[in-house]
Amino acid sequence: MGLGDVRGRVGEAAAGGRPEPSTFILDRYPHATCVAQDGSEPMLNHARHLAAKYGQRIKLHQSDLFEVDWLPQQFGLFDAVVSSSCLHNLRDFKRIREIYGDIHAHLKPGGAFVNADLINAPTAALHQRYDRVATARRHREGAVAEDLAAMVRQRRRPPATAARGPFPATLDQHLTALKAAGFKDVDCFWKELRRAVFGGYAYRSGRSRR
Ligand SMILES: C[S@@+](CC[C@H](N)C(=O)[O-])C[C@H]1O[C@@H](n2cnc3c(N)ncnc32)[C@H](O)[C@@H]1O
Fold first, then answer.
1. Mutation pick for ligand 1 pocket among 35, 44, 89 (CB with most ligand atoms within 8 Å)
2. What is the ipTM score, two decimals?
3. Which residue segment(s) compose the domain that 141 sits in?
């Protein structure tokens, strides 16, 4: 998904540890500034070290995504908000839906939200297939033989009894939640097995930009 020519402010939710989305955007868009939010002080300290070269262009903010004011008004509106490998950690799809609403409320008109995260497969059968592919890949990449045994066990499990996955929601559920939060032009922009990049735009007029 293109973020356009970001000249304004970008927020990254849960940027701790490896704030790659923020640093990628700051490198790619020299006029952008960024607020990188995370709940963990050690992770933010690590991010601070990596972000030092951007000086005033990046601000770190510590808050818990379960707190109502995790994204304080003082930051104003953003041109784009990104989140990477984070929201599934909350294990609470109701809270994720609320966070989508908070993000929508903090975007400028036309602002974009992009979420890269782990998703459940749409069916139990696909969950099993995705597991087998992921296990086979790990094995090819030199993982231990234990993985192969797990793969065989998976193959024997009847699809009807298997769950759709360990994450809070499927891609369809995320896309539906984004639309319910007010986002327009909601779509999945990239997907591989149970990883996906999806999001939408905040158009205040209620009409899509063409
Ligand atoms: C796997 S890391 C992803 C870091 C970075 N976004 C990336 O893509 O490399 C997940 C991050 O989510 C943060 N996190 C998990 N639960 C959180 C919560 N309730 N509030 C704020 N941050 C949270 C963790 O501190 C951690 O930094």
1. 89
2. 0.97
3. 124-161
